[in-house]
Amino acid sequence: MIVLGLNAFHGDSAAALLRDGKLIAAAEEERFRRVKHWAGFPSRAIAYCLDEAKLGIADVDHIAINQDNRANFGAKLRYLFSHRPDLGLILERIQNRRSRASISDLIAHCFPGKSLRAQFHNIEHHLAHLSSAFHVSPFQDAAVVSVDGFGDFTSAVWGVGRGTAIDADARVYFPHSLGIFYQALTQYLGFSHYGDEYKVMGLAPYGSPTALPAMRKIVQLETDGRFTLSLDYFRHHREQISYQWNDGVPMVTELFTPVLEQLLGPRRQPSDPIEQRHWNIARSVQAIYEEAFFNLLTAVHRIAKDTNLALAGGCAMNSVANGKVRRQTPFRNVYVQSAAGDAGGAIGSAFAVWHKLGGRRSFVMDHAYWGPHFATEDVASLVATQKSTLAQAGCTIENIADEAMLCRRIAAAIADGQVVGWFQGRMEWGPRALGNRSILCDPRRADMKELLNAKIKRRESFRPFAPSVLEEAVAEWFEENDAVPFMMQVFQVREDKRSRIPAVTHVDGSGRLQTVSARTNPRYHRLIVEFFTLSGIPMVLNTSFNENEPVVCQPEEALDCFLRTKMDLLVLGNTMISRK
Is the peptide bond preceding residue 485 cis, with omega within 30 degrees of 0? Predict the structure, then answer.
């Protein structure tokens, strides 16, 4: 059975394909369109998934979409009659619904002349999220939690997963949402682009939670795990908020009201300097989010009575909070898949359909390498066509077929302070670079943040860089010990180790680690082992291979990024390109 799952007409549109209950391919549309968080119909991601599986659209048996207009209909009616929201708000929702309803026509348009026999399935947004975490986790039984902005009129859903079944009836309905709260405060702090919440997480450790009493006026917690917003501070429940979900960059207009500025002071404009007040507000935003999150998880544990937790939804991208789950709740084992946000709904809707139709569990997602890959011949052809350009740039080209030699050479370059573009194998699924589309550096260098920002990234100086760590070395270097293959949890670096790896230790002593396994990524693991042999440090600094763009997908994009920045080395498979 072939199941195609889609996240369409929303930020991070994506496609995923299952064959008999096993994931074959998954990718986000942004990687092909080269526009961050691309919203719209994922036609190129669909084409890639079919190509990877060597199938045509006519071979697909079922198409699953992570949205169901019929879900929570009673709650929608109650809200409509009791609150009477702005007519524009209702019309905007109807327009978006129509876009989603035309998916069969869009597939026919994108694959002209091909027959389409697939049955379509609409899966409630949060149930797709829950499936994307639980059904691909190593757990047969677990508490399941999804928290985000909104989807199908809910912002949070939780319950219990057992085998193939998910029983999740506890919900928080529109207009209350932790995702909307975090997004609104992100806008207030001057980060206006869709998906900028991670910047607030990076800013928070520089401040103190002095505004926490004010945050508790905005977000109230209930004993059953639910939460409510003080709606005077927000606009989304009574006015038309302009959302751009069609083809292009997703955009959301201002979510907060002037009342928020009366409480916290004037908003920061994007061009304003970041001052201590902003650091403190960011810390307070993170603190109240964690209070609400852990209050919810404690309530979930009372229901599930399990120590396993599967997390999903956009808020599950809050790796800082995820890393504290064991300290703040009774849960001992945490699973967050690599595309926890809306892109992950493509996988979740597909697995939800597979299990709804009686399919058994036979797949665990223990790595994120589900995207396009390129043959040695593809790289050779590219290098041949760009030979004169590379010569003019003062580059030398070597082919190193011996993997052990290649890893030793690159480890030595990293230890020597060079910045390395590392392009290998299949592209990662989700927003994190996990060793196949990465820029690698020496974590020992205190000046590496400034060096990277000057040479390549050109981003805010307060944002941290991540360590890729040999999984067998985690306990020695971090206060927690767990497999974190998707870089979705932040742990505290052991105090006696922090001075040895300043480039990947944040100001609060934490690190957003990725654990690297010899089983799931043998070449990357071997490279880090070689660096460990040279330096005594079982990790490298890992940041995404890009420069203010989506992470590179093809060798051409990697080479282009290398040439327009000041990277020292580029490794495309077995080909090493170095600047003199």
Answer: no
Q: How far is CA 427 from CA 31, 53, 346, 436, 439, in A?
A: 10, 15, 17, 6, 14
Q: Show the tokens assigned to 214.
A: 């004010």
Looking only at the bridges linking them, the beta strands covering 437-441 and 420-423 are antiparallel
Give me the residue label for tokens 């390549």: 456
Domains located in the chain, CATH noted:
2-129 (3.30.420.40), 131-338 (3.30.420.40), 376-579 (3.90.870.20)
Token pair for 256: 């907060």
Kindly tell me if the per-residue pLDDT of 467 is higher than 80: yes
- Per-residue confidence (pLDDT) for residue 197, from 0 to 100: 96
The alpha carbon dihedral of 268, 272, 277, 283 has a sign of positive
* pLDDT confidence tier of residue 83, bands split at 50, 70 and 90: low
**pTM metric for this prediction:** 0.94
Report how far residue 145's alpha carbon sits from residue 127's, in angstroms, rounded to the nearest whole number. Answer: 10
- Contact partners, residue 1, CB within 8 Å, separation at least 6: 18, 19, 20, 21, 61, 62, 354, 357, 359
Q: How far apart are alpha carbons 485 and 434 in whole angstroms?
A: 8
Coil, strand or helix: which one is 165? Answer: strand
> Per-residue pLDDT averaged across 109-122, rounded?
89
Alpha helices for 357-473 (secondary structure H) = 376-385, 387-392, 403-415, 448-452
The rounded distance, in Å, linking the Cα atoms of 296 and 299 is 5
Distance in angstroms (rounded) separating the CA atoms of residues 393 and 474: 40
CA 40 vs. chain centroid, Å, equals 18
Q: Identify the DSSP state of 445.
A: -
Say how far apart CA 126 and CA 401 lie, in whole Å. 46
**Cα–Cα distance measured from residue 46 to residue 26, given in angstroms and rounded to the nearest whole number:** 9
Under the banding of pLDDT at 50, 70 and 90, the label for residue 328 is very high
Instruction: Find the DSSP H helices in 453-521.
Output: 474-477
- Listed residue (15, 63, 4, 23) closest to 40, CA to CA: 15
Q: How far is it, in rounded angstroms, from Cα 269 to Cα 333?
A: 41
Range in 15-19, 173-177, 233-237, 452-456 with the lowest mean pLDDT: 452-456
How far the first Cα of the chain sits from its last, in Å, is: 53
